[in-house]
Specification:
Length: 359
Amino acid sequence: MPDYFKMVNGTSVNVSEDGHGFTKIAYFEEPYYLLVIYCVALSLIFVASLVGNVLTCIVIYYDRTMHTATNYYLFNLAVSDLLVTFPILIFIYQILSGSALLEFEYGKMTCKFIICVHFMVVTILWNNGILVMTVLSIERYIAICYPMMLKGTPVWRRVGKIIAIIWVIALLEALVEAFYTMDVYDTGNNLICFLIPNALSKLLTAIMAVVTFIVPLGIMTFVYTMIAFKVNNNNPKYHFKDTVLNNGSNRNKVNKLITLTVSFVICWLPYFLIRVILVVVDTDNFSRTDQYWSPAHKIAMFNCWFAAALNPLLFSLMSTKFRKALKKLWERRVKKRNVLTEKSFSNTLQTSRITKMGI
């Protein structure tokens, strides 16, 4: 059984086919100016995501006309994107400082706990995002094709239960991956947590990749195909009166959701492909492909966070109603407050002048 030796932060690490000695694949040093450019791009994504998602949440929360099932799901997506945005700062620090991403010195249980939290944050939010998109597609399909099915249940009660279930499922999926596909290896200098390249971990990774990506993507593709067929069908039997099929806004909503879904898939595809490679590539071959893992990892992480900035941007640009609601909110709350402040300040000055004249 051939062994391979790599350097991880100056420490010789044994990498073997059976996976028991497999640890972190060595990241080759890259030119510092490229790392700076990469971090600047991540910083721009951080700002765009922070501003876009906060505005999305504020508009949906304060404007009652935005309290629809679709917007409740998008509010949940915006919260998820906000949460996944903050680890960007940690990632930037690790890149520029050269600190190890997955190294710990305080024991195996501490190591597993920290990596569990670190790994689960991104995984939960990814799972939550793809599940939200799947539920959104099904919700729109029912609303467009079978509108009477959703009339009996209050919107918030139905959507609230579904969102809660989505978060629970996302958490359970992340727990399985964190505890059963990760392990700790001792390099002699420190402890490193990494994906276990054994049969069980590969099987679980493959199952989770299918469950959290392939299956939802298949559902969304099927549902949107059916929606497009229903909306664009010229058969007179679909053109009945007082149905949402004759409402032009539904086509805009469908186009918006399709665009959001496609952008989500494109942004998260590199991360999914990395997981697939970890499943299908033999451990023996990792030693000959390690030079590709650093750029592949950076591209995958960049795309993940780019999705968090892109979602609110698409939602704002594609929705005239959202832009109007944002403008109305700005005029009513921000401008009005400034006007009141100016009036109060003016009245104070006038009172002060009158008092002085009286004296």
